[in-house]
Amino acid sequence: MTATTQSMSEQTAALFDEAVIPNYGRYPVCLERGEGSRVWDDQGRAYLDLFPGWGCNLLGHCPPKVVKAVQDQVAKLIHVPNTWYTEAQGRWAKMLSERSFGGKAFFCNSGAEANEAAIKLIRLHTPAERYKIITFQGGFHGRTIGAVTATAQPKYHEGLGPLMAGFTYAPFGDLDAVRELVDDETAGILIEPIQGEGGVRIPPEGFLQGLREIADENGLVLAFDEVQAGCGRTGEWFAYQHASLGDGGVTPDVITLAKSLCGGVAGGALLTTAEIAPSLRPGMHASTFGGNPIAAAAGIATIETIEEENLLGRASQISDAFAARLQPLVDKLPYVEELRACGLMIGLELSVDGSQVVQQCMERGLLINCTQGTVIRLLPAMTLTDAEVQEGCDILVNVIENLEL
Ligand SMILES: *Cc1c(COP(=O)(O)O)cnc(C)c1O
Predict the structure, then answer these.
(1) Within a domain: residue 267?
(2) Mean pLDDT, to the nearest integer, of 380-388?
(3) pLDDT for 5
(4) Cβ(253) to ligand 1 under 6 A?
(5) Do 114 and 144 sit in the same domain of this protein?
(6) Inside any domain, residue 251
(7) What is the mean pLDDT of residues 13-36?
(8) What is the tens place of the pLDDT at every residue in 299-347?
(9) Residue of the nearest CA to atom 10 in ligand 1?
(10) CA of 5 to the centre of ligand 1 (A)
(11) How far is the CA of 305 from the centre of ligand 1 (A)?
(12) Is the model's pLDDT at 249 over the cut of 90?
């Protein structure tokens, strides 16, 4: 496409003006269909999407096996409540258990809900006088009141107070600060093993292990929010399994999942050990749509696709290919500060406003994201081809090299 200002159907724009609450900043582009890492708008323009589905579409748009599984399921049974069994929910739970630490699953529909379940579980599993949860500055855990309170970023709290009681915040990477916050009322620690929205921040070596030790010494539940980093995004099934984040990996007591869990279909989950699981006892928590047949079918198909196509290994290859193109910018340009990547979580920190990069890339047919004002974030699909990596980098590198400062 040519470098023009975006436009979209005026009728659709009018519908939004009239009837949709404007709580999102939206680009004036109306997306209509997608295939792999390519997406088309209502004016027929094609884009290469290096941020498909805000990290939900780890297999790209409309992965065939997920599409087929959903189509088959939707004709058989759309929804049944959790007062009955479905074979698929059980099989899905087992598949997740086998790929993580062998525990049990609770299913919900989103990342915030998975974290709400984690907050309840942490409180339920520890003695009644323990209720405090330590979270980390720059973290992101979702928008419900519990999850947003866990999110230690003041900009998300403005005007919402009073927030939920019982959260204390530590600087990401600071074990001494965590030790100081622990008291007789502390019940758990909730952390993103790699901060996503906070700017693709990878913890210093030994940090996650240190948290494991603090949790063990003080009887705390250690929960990892892997809503963005989990389900294969980093090239391991779960970020905690990365040797680079701890000596051979650090095993948490709880992980929360959503985003790419179901290949783009809405779904969330909490996984915990068999020992802790009974604390979420009957009557204490529930989700009407949680673990529904469509999400389960999509979740199973997502795992099968990743394994059949050997995509975990592919994630690392794609990551290396991006690094080969982006690292030279750090070395060459004074306003490009740092490249941070773990598999297909890629952040390029600038010292200048990144929204202009997003805008210019979009005008040239490339979709990316900027978080925290200055961090260019890519959450590309595992199915991205080598040619697509080069195509995307050609545009991105050119835009960054030619920024008007
Ligand atoms: C996106 C995200 C959430 C919130 O997920 P929703 O599905 O939007 O509720 C929570 N934690 C992390 C790490 C996320 O990236």
Answers:
(1) yes
(2) 98
(3) 58
(4) no
(5) yes
(6) yes
(7) 97
(8) 999 999 999 999 999 999 999 999 999 999 999 999 999 999 999 999 9
(9) 141
(10) 31
(11) 23
(12) no
Nearest ligand 1 atom, CA 195? 13
Ligand 1 pocket check for 49: Cβ under 6 Å: no
Structural domain count, the chain: 2
Ligand 1: which of 228, 342, 375 to mutate, judged by most atoms within 8 Å of the beta carbon?
Answer: 228
Band of the pLDDT at 2, cuts 50, 70, 90? very low
Per-residue CA distances from 252 to 78, 101, 191, 215 (Å): 34, 9, 10, 10
CA angle 62, 202, 332 (to 5 degrees): 90
Question: What pLDDT score was predicted for residue 277?
Answer: 98
Where are the extended beta strands (E) located within 1-120? 31-35, 38-41, 46-49, 104-108
Q: Are residues 345 and 237 in the same domain?
A: no
Is residue 225 marked as binding?
Answer: yes
Q: Is 112 annotated as a binding residue?
A: yes
Closest atom of ligand 1 relative to the 259 alpha carbon: 7
What's the predicted TM-score (pTM) here?
0.97
Which segment of 6-15, 19-28, 39-48, 90-99 scores lowest on mean pLDDT? 6-15
Mean pLDDT over all residues of the chain?
96
Q: How many CA atoms lie within 13 A of 146 on its CB side?
A: 17
349 lines ligand 1 (CB under 6 A): no
Coil, strand, or helix at residue 134?
strand
Distance 228 CA to ligand 1 centre (A): 7
Ligand 1 pocket, 41 CB below 6 A? no
Q: Is 225 in the pocket of ligand 1 (CB under 6 A)?
A: yes
Query: Torsions phi, psi of 370, nearest 5?
Result: -130, 130
Domain that holds residue 32: 3-63+310-401
Of 276, 308, 340, the position where a domain reaches its end is 308
Please give the Cα distance from 141 to 123 (Å, whole number): 17
Maximum Cα interatomic distance, the chain, rounded to a whole number of Å:
62
Q: 320 and 179 in one domain?
A: no
283 with 338, same domain: the answer is no
Based on the domain organization, do 300 and 316 belong to the same domain? Answer: no
- Tell me which residue has its CA closest to atom 11 in ligand 1: 141
